[in-house]
Amino acid sequence: MKKTFYFIFLLHFSFFLFAQNAEKQVMIPHTVFIGDTAQLNISFSSKKDFFKDLPQGHNNSNQELSFQNFQRPLDEKTYSIKKIILTQNNSSNQNQINYTFSIYFTPWITGEIKFPPYALEKDFVISPSAIHIESILDATKKSQTFSENKGPLFIPGTTYRILFKIIGFLIFIGIIISAFCKWNRLVLFWKNLKLKILYARNKKETINSLNLLKRAKISDKEKAEQIQSILRNYLTIRFSFPFKNCGASEIWKGFDAVFLGLLSETKEDAVDDLTGIFTRTDFIRYSKDAVFGSDELKSIIIKLISIINIFETNEKSNEKEDQK
């Protein structure tokens, strides 16, 4: 009799655990980058009706949940959760109710992110699995594929004929290049002039926009957001690289991709300072009560203008060395 009782108890307990933990996790979109708005869906089935205590007239298919039921504090530097929704789905099994637990969030770092467990009730806890946030720089590198070089195929007995044709073609190209050499120099000079004008205008507009922020009558969070927007636009135009898509932790990766690790010591210090400013403004943007300190905004703008001048001066000196 005792064996039969234990068997029934274990069977019931195992079924309860299975019903509670039979979870399927899906992220929308499948690939998420820093700053994207994403949705983590966890589907599960349970005998419990989590909607039975809702007031009459409430939407009985979904409800927005409180953030207070997380079992551990949220890491606001890693991600921002916008809302949590529990949806009741149709079920073919009368003994089980299908649910979807959805977390709407924005990630701020690359790599793995794991949300803390969430308690729908005291005895019913949902434990999201770790998710991976992609780096846009790594995704760009993965999309580039290169094929192996293969030597030319020669038909036996035609090697010298092909060689003579190649020599004749090179001579012809040399004549064309000599004839249009002056024209090409003029075109190159015009392209360089337009590029210098673009860089000068970009620098001037960036500095003017930063100075206007000192007198702007907006909140500190909006000022922090404007500083990042102005600097991202400047860097994208100046270095022809999508810095608009880089988070604060990826600024260094962007410069490494542009300069292939050949930054001067002065420019390395400037990039370090720029990364620190992005990190500070990120904190002000996403922290609840953070504001700029006394004269901090003015100091940040002066530092940014100095960093811009370092980028422009170093580039000019590099161009002079190349001309020598």
What are the salient characteristics of this protein?
324 residues; alpha+beta; five-stranded antiparallel beta sheet; two-stranded antiparallel ribbon; 8 helices; 9 strands; 49% helix; 16% strand; disordered C terminus
* Shape designation: flat
CA-atom Rg in angstroms = 31 Å
Helix/strand-derived class? alpha+beta
Biggest sheet record? 5 strands, antiparallel
How confident overall, as mean pLDDT? Answer: 80
In whole angstroms, the N-to-C terminal distance is 98 Å
Poorly predicted residue ranges: 4-21, 316-324
The strands making up the biggest β-sheet line up spatially as: 1-2-5-4-3
Helix content: 40-55%
Summed up, the helix count is: 8
Order of helices and strands: HEEEEEEEEEHHHHHHH
| Beta-strand percentage range | 15-25%
> How many beta-strand runs?
9
Q: What does this protein structure show overall?
A:
The protein has eight helices and nine strands. The longest helix has 33 residues. The chain starts with a helix and ends with a helix.
Short description:
With 324 residues, this protein is α+β, with helices and mostly antiparallel strands.
